[in-house]
Amino acid sequence: MSETIEGRERYAINLRYAREFRDHPEALERVLVPTPSGAQVPITQLADLKFLTGPPLLRNEDGQLVAFVFVDVKDIGIADYVHLARQVVNEKAAVPAGYRIAWAGQFKYFERAKAKLQVLVPITLFIVFFMLFLNRGSLVEALIILLTIPFSLIGAVWLLYWLDYNLSVAVAVGMIALAGLAAEMGVLMMLYLGLTYHQRHGESRLNDRRDLTEAIVEGAGRRIRPMLMTGMALLLGLVPIMWSTGSGADVMKRIAAPMVGGITSALFMVLVVFPAVFGLWKGREVSQARDPALKDESR
To answer: Which domain holds residue 212?
Structure first.
């Protein structure tokens, strides 16, 4: 290893032999170097050959020399891979003073999106809850409607687990879209249950829990067909995306997967669990209306 000096400038001297010499160390040691007298001298008599592994290219970034190591992750999520890789690097790699290791690329974008979602998702849920409260005028109704969101995510999580999809920005986008759809279905179901309840209450036809059950069955029955049509339309539109190939298919699959899996659990929640929760809530009011002493005790 040597360098040439030109004033204050220094340039490293690099010799590049043909590939047939570079691929085999023994062949490189047999290279003959001509002398001024015409003799052929083996290169090992003129220089010490050492084989070192270094970066193929050094770049300049932020005023510092930087080397990139590119990794293609297939069977593990990018965040999980970086977490494991950091542990290995911290345990086995001794980073000299003046050097630093930074994890960039898709992981950097994932961390940036994750930080934003941690702020935006709670704010969005609060805004949705506040708007539901203003629209329905009831804190309990708003909370019941929001119950559809975690129930809808159950099916999404199971399908993601079955497809072996890792958490990513695309998956988060699909879950956000699913949460909005589930909340909308909950609002519609609550609307029809409330209309039937208030109609029968105005007609003095809510005297016991049996009357309440009939009112719930009537109100929920009005939404069975529209809910099933909504779910089937969503499935028919998204299932082809799950089998798509080509450019951008990997991202679109991860957006569609949470919605395909979550719509099943959302329908079960809205059509089965939702009326039951509504019955538990309104059943206490019916009991209080029938028994004035119980109403006085609740006060």
So the answer is: 107-298
